[in-house]
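Researcher: Please translate sequence to structure tokens.
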Amino acid sequence: MAASPFEQKTEEELWLEYKKKKSPQLRDAFIRQYMPLVKYVAGKVSVGMPGSVEFDDLVGFGQFGLLDAINKYDPEKNVKFKTYAVTRIRGAILDELRQLDWVPRSVRQKSREIEDAIVRIESKLGRTATDDEIAEELGISVSELQQTVMKVSGTSVLSLNDVWYSGDDSDKVSIGDSIESPSSMNPDVIVEREEVRRVIIEAINELPEKEKMVLVLYYHEDLTFKEIGQVLNVSESRISQLHTKANLRLRAKLTNIRKGII
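Model: Translation complete:
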């Protein structure tokens, strides 16, 4: 059995070789090496998805993203391939899901109604809207609001990975990718994508503390909803609800900001 290229050379050497020769054999070796990463990203995206969305389909979509990452990766830009590939894999999965349009129209409408209510309240009050205020604006009880939030929870992963453009197609920023650990939110990090990243991070910082914590633990620390529930000592369904509420608030905030900068 032939030895793996990874046993003979460093990964950096292999990438430099692939950039020059574009060897199909080396490309296949990279695919085998990083297939577990595709499955990992697919698993993250599958959280909260309805049963009609098959995990194997997500993996298949992600493989296109891996191939795209392998073909476009530049080892001389001093970015680890794994970091670069995760964004490409997740983007490929989400692009396919958007084309399938799997979110029921009624759920999409309810999500939009909540976002619009948050936009109106926060534009008027200049602060984060409370659940009581959102429910009153919608003419429903807080309990009904919570039930509605749970119904739209399956759309939240897609929404948080919506892409914002900070220039041309090669310079994209997703909301999820902009979530940083509080300890790493320094000017050097924020300036990386300038205005778009700045306004996204500001919007995240204005979220209620528990909702912000859920986003940081999920996107930055890579914890599952179950693991976050154990950290915060609440149920997994409550974490799903907090995640969705954070997403709806973020989208509402960014709707107002987008009108101002784009």
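Researcher: Any highlights?
Model: The mean pLDDT is 76.
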